[in-house]
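Task: complex structure prediction.
Instruction: return structure tokens for all chains below.
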Amino acid sequence: MTGLNWLPEIPDFRPTLRQAEAGAPGSWDILLKLARSRLDFVRTNAVDAALAAHPAPEFFGKAIRLAILGSCTLTQLHAGIRVAGLRREISVTIHEGDFGQYWQELADTGSEVHAFKPNTTLLALDAHHLAAGVNAGMSAADADAALDEVINRIRDCWRLAKGFGPVIHQTPLPVHPTLVGNNESRLPGSKAAFITRVNAALRPLAEAEGVDLVALDERAARDGLAAWHDTGLWHRAKQEVSPAAAPLYGDLVGRVIAAKQGRSSKCLVMDLDNTLWGGVIGDDGLEGIVLGQGSALGEAFTAFQDYARELARRGVILAVCSKNDEANALEPFEKHPEMLLKRGDIASFVANWSDKAGNIKAIAAELNIGLDSLVFVDDNPFERTLVRQELPMVAVPEVGDDPTDFPGILADAGYFEALAITDEDRERGGQYQGNRMREALRASTTDLPSYLRSLEMQLIWRRFDAIGLSRTVQLINKTNQFNLTTRRYTEADVQAVMNDERAFGLQLRLLDRFGDNGIIAIIIGKMQDEATLLIDTWLMSCRVLGRQVEATTLNLIAAQAKLLGARRLVGEYLPTKKNGMVKDHYARLGFTVTDVAADGSSRAVLDLADFAPADTFIEVREG
Amino acid sequence: MDDERIYSELTEIFRDVFRRDDMVLTPELTAKDVKGWDSFKQIEIMIAVEEKYAVKFRTRELEALQNVGDLARAVQAKTAAKG
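Output:
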């Protein structure tokens, strides 16, 4: 199956499309709605054609200029990639290199690909092309040499393409028929075995080179090769990927692009009755709900809970949104022996009788994350439709009402696409649990200073270093709200800061009596002239707001700037759709705002001679 | 399946593929008669037809198609064979 089955059908597709084509008022909302519906190949092309007539609005994320380089026909894939971008509010412009000329186009700085000025490259080398140099009569040594050659060529291409920006590599499909059978790998020159080896070799190589894969070989294993590849079409049109699979292909590429921009979903919001267990807890009671061993349905609910718990263990935040009395909703979490999910796994738990759209907003507010980072799972089609209508930015997959399907649909939808898994991701579940204990303490403490004092906070800072590099880059690329300048940097950019004697990069960790909050802030300061330090980047996790971390961080920046000889600090605010919360950040910290531009951006200055460090309850140390 | 139904369903597919609501299919219609009906559009049409009727055309069958009439007859034969 390569359909976009998690997206809802639009019953009146064609008239809706015609409205968008006519450029009616609100046609962007219509286009987004179309892109977020279950599009097949023909409809994807139709939406793409309508999209071409609309310039991308300014609320879209960083525009992608995608160079597609390959060895076979790939034009059938363009529309799917552009529409997958639209689905995520990312504008994608595509240039496809000449068929089979990928190496020359990358190497020759005068080529059309260079002239296009891409900022992302998709390399799609097909299995026939990659296995062209092997045949069944080959010795093992010759086959090994052929593998080395192919892998080295791919790596060389990546290194050239990295000059443009992030590189995405599509793994080849296992299209070759077997010659030996079950033990195909025993024939060194088997093309089928060769492609298996190429795919195995690409994994560690991509990890080492910082390249992200679009794993078509794994999709073929799940969906069936026939869903992805049509041998007849290969002969007719040299299409390795069947156009029927193009919408999903585009979505796979779109996920990686969005993940690279930190736009993957962060939180899974779950209904309870008939979603996490069978039946209605308020009516059926603890003994009546269906969960766990004893019935296939009960096992299916357990399997879904297990999947959610595994997502949480790798960094996805879990929340509950249920129409129930809170006491009833909590009872299974506290007392049902078959519940895998515990109350402590749920970062935000909302059970009441208000409408779900409002409750989902409250969850986003409590967790300090954007509505567009939420995925809402509910067996009830009424609730799904309501939430889609009220909150179109919330992802609401068509999960149906069979819990057996829930994990597979969520996995297929790829909302939580991740490119690097850091230790922080794995610890996040514990961090949110710590947050709740902090909230409980706050509720029991009468005034803020005594609460803050009782937290026993420590801010531990380090210069950027190799160990923290991946987390630093991840935060730089995914922090949207508390981010003064929203400048996105690659690992190479961050390393350049590390090597610059006239600049500093700081990673800040916050500890308190409830645990380690992890890296919560990133600062980059750069000397602009002999006396002025520009705060190029100041971003923070919203989890630690209201705890004097801002003022304490400024103390640290001032001290670091003085070491470089600075006599004043300059802070900038560059507005985006999401960072309105820090508009007055520098003014609040005592800076003098000197310039405010028409677009809302501003500059502010702090004279270090007059600066008295704020007295806070946070202990600062290097570590 | 009768001709009328096949032509009406194929018309829907062609209208989506060519994004023209006024498109009318006749048995004699060929790729030459329709602006933009190139080999890629041909593939798009055939994939849409295969998905609609849950059938799979063989390479020989695809190569034998000359006009819309051939396509309608091929769909007729395929769906009848499926029962």
